[in-house]
Amino acid sequence: MPAGTKDYYGLLDVSKNATEAEIKKAFRRKARECHPDVCGDGDAEERFKAVNEAYDVLSDPEKREMYDRFGTVDPRAGGGYGPDIGDFFGGGFGMDDLFSAFFGGMAGSAGRGVRREGRDMAMQVVITLEEAAEGVEKQVAVNRLVPCDECAASGSAGDAGPSTCPQCNGAGQRRTERRTFLGVMQTLTPCEACAGTGETIADPCPECQGQGRVPDREHVTLEIPPGIEDGMQIRVRGAGEAGLRGAAAGDLIATVRIAPHEYLHREGADLHARIPLTVTEAALGAEVAAPGLTDEVTVNVPAGTQYGDVLRIRGAGMPRMRGGHRGDLHVHAAVEVPRKLDKRQRELLAELAETFGEDARPTAFDKLKDWLRG
């Protein structure tokens, strides 16, 4: 392994021949050991980030293969792979939040019990303009809490399952009173016996610590329809955070971003492109090929076309999500004047200018004199 390369297998304490299941199990164990919420060591946060980085690489077959071959995911980098998982989710929900929910999600909050339903998760996905026109399936990797396989999401190692907390009678919170000079003050605090869930488990599952859910990395397929516009969102039901002990899961909300195109500009369902024309094509008219979305389109350039004139090709734009006619392609004429002319070309243009009477055309100075006289 090259010098300076991170030992991801060593970080997870697994062999190079470890299976996907062994890597996942080791990741969960290491994450619990070094997460800053449960580990008091000064370097806990750095160790946790390193473990997460190792799992991100070794859990992905393509990244793992490249790492095994080159010692890094990107051979050009000359070092390890360090993704910023916190930026993966557009809504600011990253791995730190994921594990805070896993380790600290039982804490509850004043005035109410712990949230049982899984939270929605947000992310962004980038597609091309061509993919937006045709529609596409995109597979994305999502770090989320998933139902625990060991206990079938019950949180219990055996068959007993959860029972109503005897301390709070299932409320998940306790009322306390204290006397002050203003009178008796009442406060609601999460029940310590059940950590605000309203339930207790006599034999918690060792894999999920009684939550019925564990952190994992999954692949989700996004169905992106034809005609989607930049900034629109795709919702995948149940692909968000798993609920506590089998409760309903949240959704995954993906914001679609469309990458800028090389030569096309989109406005709604219409597309805009620039087409260069020679002086003769603009003056005499011509049939020219213009860049379309997938193929070239033929544009009939009328004689006398001026710089900036817009020629419209109906139906050559984007499809509409709600059906109906496709948008149009608007071709903007850009007449290009030659920069270099040979002797014969100069002579011909001079003759042409003479036929147009350009030599007799009043100059700006002549126009100014006429205006002053007038």
Task: Report on this structure.
This protein has four domains: 83 residues, Orthogonal Bundle (Helix Hairpins); 175 residues, Urease metallochaperone UreE, N-terminal domain (HSP40/DNAj peptide-binding domain, Sandwich), CATH 2.60.260.20; 73 residues, Sandwich (HSP40/DNAj peptide-binding domain), CATH 2.60.260; 28 residues, no CATH class. Helices cover 24% and strands 26% of the residues. It is built from nine helices and 15 strands. The strands form six sheets. A four-stranded mixed beta sheet has the order 10-11-15-14. A three-stranded mixed beta sheet has the order 1-9-8. Strands 2-7 form a two-stranded antiparallel ribbon. The chain is elongated and about 105 Å long. About 8% of the residues have low confidence.
Radius of gyration: 33 Å
Largest sheet: 4 strands, mixed
Strand content: 25-35%
CATH topology group of the largest domain: HSP40/DNAj peptide-binding domain
- The CATH level-2 architecture of the largest domain is identified as Sandwich
**Strands ordered across the widest β-sheet:** 10-11-15-14
Multimer state: single chain
Count of separate DSSP helical elements: 9
CATH class type of the largest domain: Mainly Beta
- The figure for the number of domains is 4
What class, by secondary structure content?
alpha+beta
Q: Tally the beta strands.
A: 15
Concise synopsis of the structure shown:
The chain has nine helices and 15 strands. The chain has 374 residues and is α+β, with helices and mostly antiparallel strands. It has four domains: 1-83, Helix Hairpins; 86-260, HSP40/DNAj peptide-binding domain (Sandwich), CATH 2.60.260; 265-337, Urease metallochaperone UreE, N-terminal domain (HSP40/DNAj peptide-binding domain, Sandwich), CATH 2.60.260.20; 347-374, no CATH class.
